[in-house]
Design a protein that fits this description.
The chain has a domain at 316-448. It is 41% helix and 15% strand. It has 15 helices and ten strands. The chain has helices spanning 31-36, 44-62, 84-87, 90-104, 141-153, 167-183, 216-231, 242-246, 266-280, 295-300, 308-311, 334-346, 370-383, 387-399, 407-433, and strands at residues 4-13, 16-21, 25-29, 74-81, 107-114, 133-136, 157-164, 188-199, 235-238, 285-287. Strand 7, helix 6 and strand 8 form a beta-alpha-beta unit. Helix 2 packs antiparallel against helix 7 and helix 7 (216-231) packs across helix 9. It is globular and about 65 Å long. The two termini are 24 Å apart. Mean pLDDT is 89; it is low at 437-453.
Length: 453
């Protein structure tokens, strides 16, 4: 399915969610384990919001952008909800449309109908834990560094919320948390994970699925809001560095059409805070405690605390299909490049065997280092006040609703990150820009490393 999705319905059937319309898609949700990790079942409207987010995420995965990430799609979805009177209020639907449009740059139209049955079981909690804060937790480096920093401070009881589409993510996240608790006994945290997986339909072939899936952030935050409702906790942290949160696209053409993620953007989190407060009828505030730090600065704050090996157990690669023993990162995607930059700035020596391509030593064909090249060029432009880069930054900030009062703070933050790129990657840039050597006369080329890209 591609292009226009004229009419879809998301409702419960047989204990699972079903997306019906032009095509049918079953969605399995591990709600029982998630709800049992909470002190009580969230109120119906919070569960409705979670269902809406799951349905939007499924539709996002089902509709291809005609093979072009900048293509704009149109969705008209009817969601089955318990509290129909609340969701039928025009301002609520408008907020959902605003959020989804902000994340995906697509056209959305939403409506609601009375649900016919539940898609989850009513369960009793088995983990009695009363947190003082909630945090989104992935297996990424920012999540790991943020949690470690909070653990070292030892001031809060934290409920960590993970959302994923495969069981291995939950297991790895749990192992990360348990290992950190051994290294930092002051960590007082519990884990609640929600698994959402598509069954049949587009899930049968990766080529049938849209890869950008920008609506995932809506699902992550909806799960956190459900947890906040159950725990009666108003504070939800997003462990993302400030550069990643703003996420200035390295090319002007990436400002639109779903080419750049806004999943931790301050404007998105502000919108989710406002919607969440209305849904659960209590204050909710998503915050970015590390919005004034680069990723390197965030990781550097943990150097010498005995966490260097533990931090490297995190995963940053955007490719989940690496099938090489001992290799967890491709080495060339944006996540891998930014990870290597952060560890270099922090002065933490990495185990390079975990990378399929060692950016600092491998020879890499020009076509496979596109992100590295544009990142370096953008960094040079920021440091030299290149008018094109400055205009792109301003267009991005205004287009994403950032207050102009924050311009200077953000500009300085991005310039610090640009200086990190210059200091760490200048030698790599010179080496990669030199005439390529004959294969076999130097470092191995990418063709012989087995990278899955």
């Amino acid at each position: 399915m591609s292009g226009f999705v004229n009419s879809l319905r998301v409702n419960a059937a047989g204990g699972q969610l079903v997306v019906g319309g032009e095509v049918n898609q079953r969605v399995s949700v591990g709600a029982t384990a998630f709800f049992r990790s909470l002190p009580r079942l969230p109120q119906p409207r919070a569960i409705d919001l979670l269902m809406i987010a799951i349905g939007a995420y499924a539709a996002d995965r089902m509709a291809l952008r005609y093979g072009r990430q900048h293509a704009i799609r149109s969705f008209h979805i009817t969601f089955g909800v318990e509290d129909l009177a609340f969701w039928s209020r025009p301002e609520i639907g408008e907020q959902i449309v605003e959020i989804l449009s902000f994340l995906t740059d697509d056209n959305w139209c939403v409506s609601f109908e009375q649900t016919r049955e539940n898609w989850y079981q009513v369960v009793l909690p088995i983990k009695w834990f009363t947190p003082t804060r909630i945090a989104l937790f992935s297996e990424g480096l920012d999540s790991a560094a943020g949690l470690a920093d909070q653990a070292l401070r030892g001031s809060d009881q934290i409920l960590l919320v993970t959302v994923g589409h495969y069981a291995a993510l939950r297991r790895r996240a749990e192992r990360q948390i348990l290992k950190l608790a051994e290294l930092v006994p002051d960590l007082c945290g519990k884990h609640a994970s929600l698994l959402v997986s598509l069954r049949g339909g587009v899930a049968r072939r990766l080529r049938l699925q849209e890869k950008t899936q920008r609506s995932r952030a809506f699902l992550f935050c909806a799960a956190a809001i459900a947890a906040a409702a159950a725990c009666e906790v108003p504070n939800i942290d997003v462990y993302e560095n400030g550069v990643g949160a703003i996420n200035l696209p390295p090319m002007t053409g990436m400002l639109f059409g779903g080419l750049a993620t806004r999943g931790a953007h301050p404007s998105f989190l502000k919108m989710m805070s406002a919607l969440g407060a209305l849904v659960i009828d209590q204050p909710v505030s998503f915050s970015l405690p590390y919005q004034d730090l680069t990723k390197g600065e965030l990781v550097a704050a943990l150097r010498g605390r005995g966490l260097e090996d533990w931090l490297q157990q995190s995963r940053s690669c955007i490719h989940s299909s690496l099938r090489i023993a001992g290799v967890t990162h491709c080495g060339l995607c944006p996540g891998c490049i930014e990870r290597r930059l952060a560890f270099a700035i922090a002065g933490i020596e990495e185990n390079v065997r975990s990378y399929s391509v060692d950016l600092f030593h491998s020879s890499i064909r020009a076509g496979l280092r596109d992100y590295f090249d544009v990142l370096f060029e953008q960094s040079a432009g920021l440091l030299s006040d290149d008018p094109l880069v400055v205009r792109r930054l301003r267009a991005h900030l205004r287009g994403t609703g950032v207050d102009s009062a924050d311009d200077e703070r953000i500009h300085q933050l991005l310039c610090r990150n640009a200086d990190e790129v210059r200091r760490v990657f200048s030698g790599v840039r010179r080496r990669l820009s030199a005439p390529e050597r004959v294969a076999g006369s130097g470092s191995p080329s990418l063709a012989f490393t087995g990278v899955a890209i």
